[in-house]
Design a protein that fits this description.
The protein is of the alpha+beta class and about 325 residues long. The chain has one domain (about 1-190, about 220-335): Thiolase/Chalcone synthase (Peroxisomal Thiolase, Chain A, domain 1, 3-Layer(aba) Sandwich). It contains ten helices and 15 strands. The protein starts with 9 loop residues before the first strand and ends with a strand. The protein binds oxa(dethia)-CoA. Pfam families: ACP_syn_III, ACP_syn_III_C.
């Protein structure tokens, strides 16, 4: 397969973790803040509540909790980690939060950096990590998805504020000895022509610095989304990209044990599963509990299904992230050593 040309090592997926957030905001509570109802939110999205980070929480603290838990579940020490990739769109520091997490967990040998690809970020980071492992550059890699979308939410906008929540999840990927490679295939896509459908843009005004030289002064604005357009994009593009990835792997939808999509809307999960003819029992959904946690949604769902024993070693997983960019992608993998 062309994606594997020149590779010298395989990849295994050996651990998962997620952060535990205590505070949950229910639909009923939200209905006291904006003109909405539990009924509207639940029937249109499947969401019942979302977690909100506490005053002491941060991408650093939640990402570190998820990473430490994933490293422990892989029976590794933080000092065994060579690389940390943090998928986030809401870093504590615009220069990156991955190094803060590296310090927090004591992964002193690891190089660490952020990747921004919104709700596709975790899948994009996982595929990026695999490239470093396949070339032999690194052995043990932690991939984190962590976002505090409550920071970027306009709590007066009922079209968006009902959707989002905070969270962090992580996995450990490891170099495989021998012939095996458990990242069976991937397919990543971007379409900047649809960029204005989903944004948290920098808004600024020009301030004169000296003579005719101006600088931009402003701030990042809350999330704006053309929900219907993004919905249409997701139900068309996500099945396509999963089918393409399956084709690269020489597999069909019948070979998938679990479908783990970005948790954006239960109706999107149902539509994609129907199109792919994957039974609903094999579709991972924790949306009712977490809402849409951006780059964190796939690793949180994965970790919950692994820890509850539903996902077992050797299971074939189809992961797909989609969202701002617009961007989307799929990875087909075998879970476990
Ligand atoms: O994470 C990145 C990827 N994001 C996504 O994939 C999101 C994709 N989009 C969606 O999931 C859906 O489009 C939404 C959940 C955002 C919206 O659902 P919808 O069924 O597409 O609703 P709509 O935007 O077509 O709005 C239908 C009606 C409108 O009223 P009118 O114009 O028909 O009178 C809205 O004003 O529902 C109204 N509405 C609400 N009513 C009560 C919109 N939001 C709310 C609300 N509560 N929270």
């Amino acid at each position: 397969m062309s994606q594997q040309t020149g590779q010298t090592h395989g990849v295994a997926f050996v651990g998962s973790g997620s952060a535990k957030l205590e505070t949950a905001l229910s639909n009923v509570q939200l209905a006291k803040i904006v003109d909405t109802s539990d009924e509207w939110i639940a029937t249109r999205t499947g969401i019942r509540q979302r977690h909100i980070a506490g005053p002491g929480d941060s991408v650093r603290s939640l990402g570190a909790e998820a990473a430490a838990s994933a490293i422990a579940s892989a029976n590794l020490q933080p000092t065994d980690i060579d690389l940390i990739l943090l998928a986030t769109s809401t870093p504590d520091d615009l220069f990156g939060s991955a190094c803060q997490i590296q310090h927090e967990i004591g992964a002193s040998r690891a190089v660490a950096f952020d990747i921004t690809a919104a709700c596709s970020g975790f899948v994009f980071a996982l595929v990026t990590a695999a490239q470093f492992i396949r070339t032999g550059a690194y052995r043990n890699v932690v991939v984190i998805g962590a976002d505090l979308l409550s920071r970027l939410t306009d709590w007066r906008d009922r079209r968006t504020c009902v959707l989002f929540g905070d969270g962090a999840g992580a996995i450990v990927m490891q170099r495989c000895e021998g012939e095996s490679d458990h990242l069976l295939s991937f397919d990543l896509r971007s379409d900047g022509t649809l960029n204005d459908c989903l944004n948290a843009a920098y808004e600024h005004e020009s301030v004169t610095l000296a003579g005719d030289i101006t600088v931009q002064k402003g701030h990042f604005s809350p999330v704006t989304m053309n929900g219907r357009e993004v919905y249409r994009f997701a139900v068309k593009r996500v099945p396509e990209v999963i089918e393409k990835a399956l084709f690269h792997a020489g597999l069909s939808t019948k070979d998938i044990d679990w479908l783990i999509l970005h948790q954006a809307n239960q109706r999107i999960l149902d539509a994609v599963a129907t199109r792919l003819k994957i039974p609903s029992e094999q579709v991972v959904s924790n949306m009712a509990k977490h809402g849409n946690t951006d780059a964190a949604s796939i690793p949180i769902a994965l970790d919950e299904w692994v820890r509850s024993g539903k996902i077992k070693n050797g299971d074939t997983l189809a992961l797909s992230g989609f969202g701002a960019g617009l961007s989307w992608g799929a990875a087909i993998l075998k879970w476990g050593q």
